[in-house]
Amino acid sequence: MIPSHLFASMALSTAHDLWRWVLRLGGIGLIPLGLVDNSFIPVPGSMDVAIILLSAHQQHLWFYYALMATAGSVAGGFVTYRLAKKGGKEAMEREFPAKRVESVRRTFEKWGFGSIAIPALLPPPVPLVPFLFAAGAMQYPPKKFLTALTLGRALRYVILAYLAGRYGRQTLQFFGKFAHPGILALLAIILCIAGTAFYVWRTRSKRGSPSKAHGHPS
Known about the structure:
The protein is an all-alpha fold and 218 residues long.
């Protein structure tokens, strides 16, 4: 059995290598991360951390990172929306407790567009996934859904990326001094989850395509 201190050292070393890989991958890595963060297994704050560190490291690319993060987040949110739309209200009731479903339903019926845009703009612990699911289950128009989600996420990530790019050196010094091991470990976990979830999603999509085609004969 590996001693705990040796295991921690190995984990930190692996996380450091993964972080260097993220820097090389750049904005492309934000796409699968966005798919995960807006799915049934969200990792709250993961995208924020990635944007801050990437923008602080390459300050001239802050707007690019904001755009890629928005694209990944919107893509992930739309996948959740489509799954919920297909499953309907029954699927929503299976995924969330009854009290949560009723609360989200009332909020969505009252605020509609705002119930998506505002949670998309605000940081954790404000939840977003239940409202993504509610939008699909309650057959909210796709164009309005995408507009609300894009607006909220774009504002949030542009602000974060700009601040990180503007105060890049101070940001990196802060993380290096106070949160370096924890951030690296978090990024290692995020990358593993993102890769696994993306693989599962792609596998299910490929399996679902033939059956869907057979279900709609010409």
